[in-house]
Amino acid sequence: MATQTTAVPGRVTFPQVAIALQTLALLFQAVTAGMLLSSSLGAVLHDAGSKVLYGASMLYVLAAILAWRPGGGSPRPILYASGFLVLASVQVVLGVAHVPSLHVPLGIVMFGLSMLALGRVVSTRLTARTGTRS
Fold this sequence. Notes:
Layout: H1 14-35, H2 41-71, H3 76-96, H4 100-130
């Protein structure tokens, strides 16, 4: 018999933390990309941030799997997280190959997608907290 578990309203879950960390890492990458134009420190910070972002993307996949498996929920968040990890991998390849004409627009798309995912998680949390359904 499968038991479906749900998060306790008002508590922050592992997937919520993972997507927030990923979004913050992307924002950091955007800031350090701008710093690349004016200082050599920008390159060091952008390189370090890329490693953090890649780790955050892997953490998001892990969080999605761990939230799905015991809870019996939809595996759709795993698809989103895995797709994002693929985009992060492409981003790394483009950055190492110094292809800014694709690297920069893909970074913008990734930030937008991460913001959408974060907004979905936050709105779900707020809906659960107030007890209303939309």
